[in-house]
């Protein structure tokens, strides 16, 4: 699942291809926007917030979310697409290139200036210009009983972390992902670590995971074989279990399981 760094880098590539260019053609292959035609509009900017991507013209902002399988690719006009045509959801063409969004989880178009409706509820963006570590800590502390490995995935606390980086950040801070938020000794350091790791990931991609996906491989600090597990939870302000939990990876020595 793409995380904040992937979305940030996708925005960068799309910006290089589209910003300042006039659209020669637009094709929205989702029923709601099938008749929308942005031909003649100039792409003003491309940006990201957490895992949300925005392509902006003077009148609208195209909001997409990659979710599980989504990706944006840029092709020269006439070049063969590298993914099945039927999975294309949005095509934006200039005179030179075609930017194609494949298997996107969300495609939405809002009026220019209405982006805030999409991002208002989110926590600070780890890769944004206004990253605010103290605010992320304040949001995390609202639910002290929640496992930290769950809390950092909640985009309302801080935006940009997915399943890979929650294991990475917990490993780097020697915190077991099941540890209650209220029992994490230095939340600010953990949040700073998340910021550091994602920032590094966009500067020098691809980043090799230290813990994620490394079951049975030796811990790079102490040599103990890493373990995988699952973290069950119900989000604190939801009535129902909303998340089918995905795997956590940790070192049983450096990150001991917290007492229940
Ligand atoms: Zn270890």
From TrEMBL:
Span of domain FPG-type: 210-256
**InterPro entries, per this entry?**
FPG_cat, FPG_N, H2TH_FPG, Nei2_N, Ribosomal_uS13-like_H2TH, Znf_DNA_glyclase/AP_lyase
Q: Which UniProt keywords apply?
A: DNA damage, DNA repair, DNA-binding, Glycosidase, Hydrolase, Lyase, Metal-binding, Multifunctional enzyme, Zinc, Zinc-finger
Is-annotated flag, keyword Repressor? Answer: no
- Top enzyme class: lyase
Q: What is this protein called?
A: DNA-(apurinic or apyrimidinic site) lyase
| Top-rank lineage group of the source organism | Bacteria
Write the Enzyme Commission number(s) for this entry.
4.2.99.18
Taking every annotated instance into account, which residue ranges of this chain make up the domain Formamidopyrimidine-DNA glycosylase catalytic? 2-88
- Provide the family line: Belongs to the FPG family.
């Amino acid at each position: 699942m793409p995380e904040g760094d992937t979305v940030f880098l996708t925005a960068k590539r799309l910006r290089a291809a589209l910003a300042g260019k006039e659209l020669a053609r637009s094709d929205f292959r989702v029923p709601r926007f099938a008749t929308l035609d942005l031909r003649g509009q100039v792409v003003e900017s491309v940006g990201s917030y957490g895992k949300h991507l925005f392509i902006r013209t003077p009148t609208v902002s195209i909001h997409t979310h990659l979710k599980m399988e989504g990706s944006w690719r840029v092709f020269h006009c006439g070049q063969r697409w590298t993914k099945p045509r039927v999975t294309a959801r949005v095509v934006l063409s200039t005179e030179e290139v075609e930017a194609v969004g494949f298997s996107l989880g969300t495609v939405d178009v809002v009026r220019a200036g209405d982006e805030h409706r999409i991002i208002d509820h989110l926590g600070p963006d780890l890769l944004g210009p206004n990253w605010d570590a103290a605010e992320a800590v304040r949001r995390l502390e609202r639910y002290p009983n929640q496992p930290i490995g769950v809390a950092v995935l909640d985009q309302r606390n801080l935006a940009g972390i997915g399943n890979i980086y929650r294991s990475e950040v917990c490993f780097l801070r020697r915190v077991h992902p099941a540890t209650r938020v209220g029992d994490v000794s230095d939340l600010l350091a953990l949040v700073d670590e998340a910021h550091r790791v994602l920032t590094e990931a966009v500067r020098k991609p691809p980043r090799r995971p230290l813990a994620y996906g490394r079951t049975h491989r030796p811990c790079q600090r102490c040599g103990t074989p890493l373990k995988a597990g699952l973290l069950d939870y119900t989000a604190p302000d939801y009535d129902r279990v909303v998340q089918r939990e995905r795997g956590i990876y940790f070192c049983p020595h450096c990150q001991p399981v917290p007492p229940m």
